[in-house]
Specification:
This protein is of the alpha/beta class. The protein contains seven helices and eight strands; from the N terminus they run βββααααβββααββα. It has a single domain (about 15-205), classed as Lambda Exonuclease, Chain A (Alpha-Beta Complex), CATH 3.90.320.
Amino acid sequence: MEPGAHRYCFRGDWLPFSVTGIVSDLSPKAREQIERTKDGPDGWAIRGSSIHGILEQHLLGVANGGLQGVIYDDRWSQWAEPLLDYWLFRDCTVLAVETALCDPGKRVGGSFDFLVRTAEGQTILGDLKTVTTAAALKSRKPATAQLGAYASMMCWWWPTVTIDRCATLVAAPGECELKVEETAKCMAAWQEAWERHDAEERLRGF
């Protein structure tokens, strides 16, 4: 994966497609709004990358045998505190963090945020999303097709790993919410998104 961009390379060749690019179904107006609020010190890009980095530090600490101190800017504490104390990560076994995958046949790459085995023994494949308000947390749709892509790729590369559930973890100031879905449902949504994308590419003569 190329840092800072949704571009992936497999055995020396750049893949033309990314999971996020394929599953995106935003309207032109929504895309414009997202681009307008992306950059700057209060933009969603720095918030998202910062909170993702905080969770990555935390899970790597757990994976290395125990909780280690996570250093972060105080401006992110409203998101970080409930995230680092979230029940999902208590006494869990961390199997993977920020892991890049690809489907060579489809020529598409992507990366998921975490794969953990909970204290109850459930293996959860997850993607972290950040929002600015509690209202946005409730209305945030789960990353169904996106998670299905990662689950499908995991089946290809690590068929012995059984993913019990897929989950979108949404972090807002002061609270988090886990939107859990069946793995098969997510994989079916990914297949549908891929077939739609593939049909569009064929029409364009890709």
